[in-house]
Amino acid sequence: MARTPLVTLGSLLLITTPVWAQTSAPWPKIKEFGGATPTNEGKWFTVSDYPGAALREGLQGNVIVRFDISAAGRAENCIVEATSAHTELDRVPCAVIERRARFKPAQTADGEPMGTHGRYSVAFWQPN
Questions:
Q1: For 5-9, 52-56, 108-112, 119-123, which range has the lowest pLDDT when averaged over its residues?
Q2: What pairs with residue 15 in β-bridges?
Q3: b/e map of 66-93 (b: 16 or more CB within 10 Å)?
Q4: pLDDT tens-digit profile of 39-81?
């Protein structure tokens, strides 16, 4: 059977064809938002974000990123904290998160929006 490309994003599993194998990524999920609440997490990534060349080559890996969450609820200053060992995969999460992620910001004791920090893992994998 051909491999089925999957992208696991937090608790979201994107599947392009039926899967007859393992249905969860082999890496732990990281979702830390420092008091902010994601408002559109299910829309951050799509299967089309898996780089085509990496998919064809069977490259897999888990990328952990760290970013700031502004008082306006936007992700900024994203960096790769832990690499997948594949540049093609490593460059995807920050670009996508900074473009698509939205948050209800964390709040001060007075209820004012404040900036905070986030960490997130993105698993690029294809079940055997």
A1: 5-9
A2: 6
A3: bbbbbbebbbeebebebebebebbbebb
A4: 999 999 998 999 999 999 999 999 999 999 999 999 999 999 9
Mean pLDDT throughout 22-49? 92
Q: Are 42 and 11 in contact (CB under 8 A)?
A: no
Give the three-state DSSP class for 88: helix
Close Cβ partners of 58 (under 8 Å, ≥ 6 residues apart): 3, 126
CB-facing half-sphere around the CA of 29: CA atoms within 13 A: 10
Q: In the chain, where are the structural domains located?
A: 6-17+30-125
Say what the pTM is.
0.80
Query: Has domain 6-17+30-125 been given CATH number 3.40.630.30?
Result: no
Pairing outcome for strands 37-38 and 113-114: unpaired
Radius of gyration of the chain, Cα coordinates, nearest whole angstrom? 15
